[in-house]
Write a structure and sequence with these properties.
two-stranded antiparallel ribbon, single chain, alpha+beta, 209 residues, 7 strands, 22% helix
Length: 209
């Protein structure tokens, strides 16, 4: 999730609405494709995100960087880093985490997932509308990827690979993505908390280069 900069003109708000709708439609396509061919779904996700970043007026990229933009760097698809897991309930804990601009983001930790790469807490974004949020850092954060972490699940922005018929979350690190503030500091993005730091590098999803 990223806080929206105040648009300077009225046209920016419909543009932002269109961005949200296109991202939601993309993830719906990715969920359908992933059921048959996860690697193909990943290629679709990467190509469409690249198109949006290059062409859309609400791209996280600053305008001067869009023309020369060649695509989002990602590791090749690795099926060994695609998991499903139930959310294990935990006592609810209200907390705030810092954002890239120093503002606090209120969250409610309500559960965790246990994956082969480690345990990660799962949060509810405790503002209007809310959403399930799963940010993380790993041993490669700050070198291989953004030091503030990446997002695995952010339903407020429709970044959601869905669930299995049994209700387990689909958590595929190949779809881990950088927050908008990685591309332009005008965006305010919540940073992954210290509870969600994985001990080993996760070389899947978006990378620095």
């Amino acid at each position: 999730m990223a806080s929206v900069p105040s648009p300077s003109d009225a046209a920016a708000w419909p543009e932002l609405l269109d961005w949200r709708r296109q991202v939601g439609a993309l993830y719906a396509r990715v969920r359908r494709e992933r059921e048959q061919d996860p690697a193909s779904a990943h290629a679709l996700w990467r190509s469409e995100r690249t198109r949006l970043f290059r062409e859309h007026p609400q791209s996280p990229l600053p305008p001067e960087a869009r023309t020369a933009f060649r695509g989002l760097p990602c590791w090749p698809y690795d099926p060994a880093l695609a998991f499903t897991a139930p959310i294990e309930p935990l006592p609810q804990e209200r907390l705030t985490i810092p954002s890239s601009t120093g503002q606090d983001m209120p969250l409610v930790r309500f559960g965790c997932v246990r994956l082969p790469v480690g345990r990660l807490d799962v949060y509810w974004i405790d503002v209007y509308g809310g959403g399930v949020f799963l940010p993380f850092r790993d041993a490669g954060s700050g070198t291989d990827s953004y030091g503030g972490g990446r997002y695995l699940l952010d339903t407020a922005k429709s970044a959601d690979l869905g669930s299995t018929p049994g209700g387990e979350l689909v958590l595929d690190f190949n779809f881990a993505f950088h927050p908008s503030c990685f591309y332009d500091p005008r965006w305010s993005c919540p940073l992954a908390p210290p509870q969600n730091v994985l001990k080993e590098p996760v070389r899947a999803g978006e990378r620095v280069s």
